[in-house]
């Protein structure tokens, strides 16, 4: 494994030495943290297989349900790696908790990144939706050789569902926040797809690369600084869309709040934050059926 060096001033970023590219590297891998995701993990995997993901690196944070069994039934050793990943880490110098996802993302890049042209760092409630082409790789052709792509959240809340509806998640939730580039607190953010062999700094929502520093591109290939990507001019959404199914039904939202977040030390702070985000999303909704139309047009089997 390569080396990880926590920044003293910020426990949410890690600097790394990028891995060397392996001969014949190709395709896209996803690295993701999971815990007790049995209800929806099959749909998430089937969809991303259908859009061309080559390998899934699943960092399992102590699941006690059927998550891992479902994954092993769906995927073979060529497409699945499950890494047990539990516990919290504290910086010994500052006493600050290290962000668990950042450590996972750095670990994935350092240990597996050399085999792939791209690695995507998303969650299991996020779906990579091609708007042009049939696969994520085809959608990324607009970016060319640039190594750092940022995709803004398209935030879906309950879509009026009080209890979990039958059928696939991606077909049931079609109402999202109108403006992915909103300035509302915690509602607007990004997830990234990067060339792992170029990454020198890792965090959850942004990366730095060796040649281009903090420059990142939208899905159309237009480049912006890390700060400038928050401007309305950054938004393209022509080639690739990131759908974030933030709450699912109201019942599932309440269960989410009861569970809390593994890497959040304050359950009350977490609850207040989530409820504020949901309120902000649902203040201004639009109907977005791009996912439904893509699934139907391509006859994707989500297993439900």
What is the CATH-assigned architecture?
Answer: Alpha-Beta Complex
Instruction: Count the domains.
Output: 1
Q: Strand order of the main beta sheet, please?
A: 5-4-3-6-10-8-15-7
Largest beta-sheet details: 8 strands, mixed
Strand content: 25-35%
Q: So how many helices?
A: 8
Radius of gyration: 18 Å
Distance between the termini: 39 Å
Characterization of the model:
With 304 residues, the chain is an alpha/beta fold. It has a single domain (4-298), classed as Spore Coat Polysaccharide Biosynthesis Protein SpsA, Chain A, CATH 3.90.550. The protein is built from eight helices and 16 strands. It has an eight-stranded mixed β-sheet with strand order 5-4-3-6-10-8-15-7, with helices on both faces. Strands 1-2-11-12 form a four-stranded antiparallel β-sheet, with helices on one face. Helix 1 (41-50) runs parallel beside helix 2 (67-74).
Quick description:
The protein has 304 residues and is α/β, with parallel strands linked by helices.
Describe the protein's topology.
Elements: E1 4-7, E2 10-16, E3 28-34, H1 41-50, E4 53-60, H2 67-74, E5 80-84, H3 100-112, E6 118-121, E7 126-130, H4 136-139, E8 148-156, H5 169-172, E9 175-177, E10 190-194, E11 199-202, E12 207-209, E13 216-217, E14 223-224, E15 240-245, H6 250-259, H7 267-282, E16 285-287, H8 290-298
Parallel strand pairs: 3-4, 3-6, 4-5, 8-15
Antiparallel strand pairs: 1-2, 2-11, 6-10, 7-15, 8-10, 9-16, 11-12, 13-14
């Amino acid at each position: 494994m390569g080396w990880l060096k926590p920044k003293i001033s910020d426990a949410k970023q890690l600097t790394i030495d990028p891995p060397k590219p392996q001969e014949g590297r190709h395709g896209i891998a996803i690295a993701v943290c999971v815990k007790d995701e049995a209800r929806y993990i099959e749909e998430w995997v089937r969809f991303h297989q259908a859009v061309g993901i080559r390998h899934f690196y699943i960092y399992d944070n102590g699941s006690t349900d059927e998550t891992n069994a479902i994954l092993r039934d769906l995927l073979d050793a060529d497409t699945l790696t499950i890494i047990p990943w539990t516990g919290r880490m504290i910086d010994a110098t500052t006493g600050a908790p290290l962000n668990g996802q950042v450590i996972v993302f750095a670990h994935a890049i350092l240990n597996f990144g050399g085999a792939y042209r791209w690695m995507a760092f998303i969650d299991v409630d996020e779906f990579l939706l091609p708007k042009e082409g049939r696969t994520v790789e085809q959608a990324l052709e607009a970016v060319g050789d640039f190594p750092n792509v940022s995709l803004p959240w398209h935030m879906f809340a309950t879509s009026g569902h009080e209890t979990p509806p039958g059928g696939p998640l991606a077909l049931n939730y079609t109402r999202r926040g109108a403006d992915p580039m909103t300035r509302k607190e915690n509602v607007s953010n990004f997830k990234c797809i990067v060339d792992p062999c170029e990454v020198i700094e890792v965090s959850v929502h942004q990366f730095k690369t060796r040649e281009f520093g903090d420059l990142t591109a939208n899905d159309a290939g237009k480049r912006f600084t890390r700060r400038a990507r928050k401007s309305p001019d950054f938004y393209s959404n022509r080639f690739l869309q990131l759908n974030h199914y933030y709450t699912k039904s109201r019942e599932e939202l309440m269960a989410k709040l009861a569970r809390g977040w593994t890497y959040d030390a304050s359950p009350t702070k977490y609850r207040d934050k989530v409820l504020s985000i949901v309120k902000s999303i649902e203040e201004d909704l639009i109907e977005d059926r791009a996912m439904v139309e893509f699934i139907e047009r391509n006859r994707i089997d989500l297993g439900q």
